[in-house]
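Shape matters. As here.
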Amino acid sequence: MAAAVLLPGAIANLLDGFTALRQTSLPAGPAVLAPRDLGAVLASLGHPLSGAALKLAGAFDFFSLWAAVMMAFGIRGGGRTCPPRRALIGTLCAWVCLRLVLKTAMGGGA
Protein backbone atom coordinates (compact mmCIF):
# COMPACT_ATOMS: atom_id res chain seq x y z
CA MET A 1 0.00 0.00 0.00
CA ALA A 2 2.82 2.41 0.83
CA ALA A 3 4.37 1.99 -2.61
CA ALA A 4 1.04 2.59 -4.33
CA VAL A 5 0.44 5.75 -2.29
CA LEU A 6 3.79 7.16 -3.47
CA LEU A 7 2.74 6.80 -7.13
CA PRO A 8 0.78 10.12 -7.42
CA GLY A 9 3.77 12.08 -6.09
CA ALA A 10 6.03 10.36 -8.60
CA ILE A 11 3.63 11.22 -11.43
CA ALA A 12 3.57 14.86 -10.26
CA ASN A 13 7.38 14.99 -10.30
CA LEU A 14 7.42 13.39 -13.75
CA LEU A 15 4.98 16.01 -15.07
CA ASP A 16 7.20 18.74 -13.58
CA GLY A 17 10.20 17.21 -15.34
CA PHE A 18 8.46 17.09 -18.72
CA THR A 19 7.25 20.66 -18.27
CA ALA A 20 10.76 21.83 -17.39
CA LEU A 21 12.25 20.10 -20.42
CA ARG A 22 9.76 21.81 -22.76
CA GLN A 23 10.72 25.32 -21.60
CA THR A 24 13.63 27.16 -23.16
CA SER A 25 14.81 28.55 -19.82
CA LEU A 26 13.72 28.31 -16.21
CA PRO A 27 13.42 31.33 -13.90
CA ALA A 28 15.94 31.75 -11.10
CA GLY A 29 13.32 31.57 -8.33
CA PRO A 30 10.66 29.01 -7.62
CA ALA A 31 8.41 28.39 -10.61
CA VAL A 32 5.10 26.62 -11.10
CA LEU A 33 5.80 24.05 -13.78
CA ALA A 34 2.71 21.83 -13.83
CA PRO A 35 -0.57 22.53 -12.03
CA ARG A 36 -0.53 20.92 -8.60
CA ASP A 37 -3.32 22.45 -6.54
CA LEU A 38 -6.92 21.40 -7.03
CA GLY A 39 -8.00 24.78 -8.42
CA ALA A 40 -5.30 24.80 -11.10
CA VAL A 41 -6.02 21.21 -12.10
CA LEU A 42 -9.74 21.94 -12.45
CA ALA A 43 -8.97 25.08 -14.48
CA SER A 44 -6.72 23.11 -16.84
CA LEU A 45 -9.54 20.59 -17.33
CA GLY A 46 -11.89 23.40 -18.37
CA HIS A 47 -13.76 23.94 -15.09
CA PRO A 48 -12.32 27.15 -13.61
CA LEU A 49 -13.35 28.15 -10.10
CA SER A 50 -13.71 31.65 -8.74
CA GLY A 51 -13.94 33.45 -5.42
CA ALA A 52 -13.87 31.48 -2.20
CA ALA A 53 -14.02 28.13 -4.01
CA LEU A 54 -10.80 28.98 -5.86
CA LYS A 55 -9.06 29.97 -2.63
CA LEU A 56 -10.19 26.75 -0.90
CA ALA A 57 -9.21 24.57 -3.87
CA GLY A 58 -5.83 26.31 -4.03
CA ALA A 59 -5.02 25.07 -0.53
CA PHE A 60 -5.21 21.40 -1.50
CA ASP A 61 -2.66 19.56 -3.59
CA PHE A 62 -4.40 17.38 -6.21
CA PHE A 63 -1.74 14.68 -6.16
CA SER A 64 -1.79 14.54 -2.36
CA LEU A 65 -5.58 14.12 -2.46
CA TRP A 66 -5.19 11.34 -5.00
CA ALA A 67 -2.71 9.59 -2.68
CA ALA A 68 -5.10 9.98 0.29
CA VAL A 69 -7.94 8.34 -1.63
CA MET A 70 -5.64 5.50 -2.65
CA MET A 71 -4.58 5.12 0.98
CA ALA A 72 -8.21 4.90 2.10
CA PHE A 73 -8.90 2.07 -0.31
CA GLY A 74 -5.64 0.40 0.71
CA ILE A 75 -6.62 0.55 4.38
CA ARG A 76 -9.97 -0.94 3.50
CA GLY A 77 -8.53 -3.65 1.26
CA GLY A 78 -5.54 -4.56 3.39
CA GLY A 79 -7.05 -4.56 6.84
CA ARG A 80 -10.72 -5.21 6.12
CA THR A 81 -11.40 -3.59 9.48
CA CYS A 82 -14.12 -1.18 8.44
CA PRO A 83 -16.55 -0.44 5.60
CA PRO A 84 -15.18 1.47 2.57
CA ARG A 85 -17.16 4.63 3.34
CA ARG A 86 -15.79 4.79 6.88
CA ALA A 87 -12.22 4.21 5.68
CA LEU A 88 -12.59 6.94 3.05
CA ILE A 89 -14.13 9.47 5.45
CA GLY A 90 -11.55 8.80 8.17
CA THR A 91 -8.59 8.99 5.82
CA LEU A 92 -9.83 12.17 4.12
CA CYS A 93 -10.48 13.84 7.49
CA ALA A 94 -6.94 13.00 8.59
CA TRP A 95 -5.60 14.24 5.24
CA VAL A 96 -7.45 17.58 5.54
CA CYS A 97 -6.10 18.05 9.08
CA LEU A 98 -2.56 17.28 7.88
CA ARG A 99 -2.85 19.69 4.94
CA LEU A 100 -4.18 22.47 7.17
CA VAL A 101 -1.40 21.97 9.73
CA LEU A 102 1.26 21.91 6.99
CA LYS A 103 -0.21 24.98 5.27
CA THR A 104 -0.25 26.88 8.58
CA ALA A 105 3.23 25.72 9.59
CA MET A 106 4.69 26.77 6.23
CA GLY A 107 3.28 30.27 6.60
CA GLY A 108 0.69 29.98 3.83
CA GLY A 109 -2.23 30.59 6.16
CA ALA A 110 -5.71 31.14 4.82
Notes: The first helix runs from residue 2 to 22. Helices lie at 2-22, 38-44, 52-57, 62-79, 84-105. The chain is about 65% helix and 0% strand.
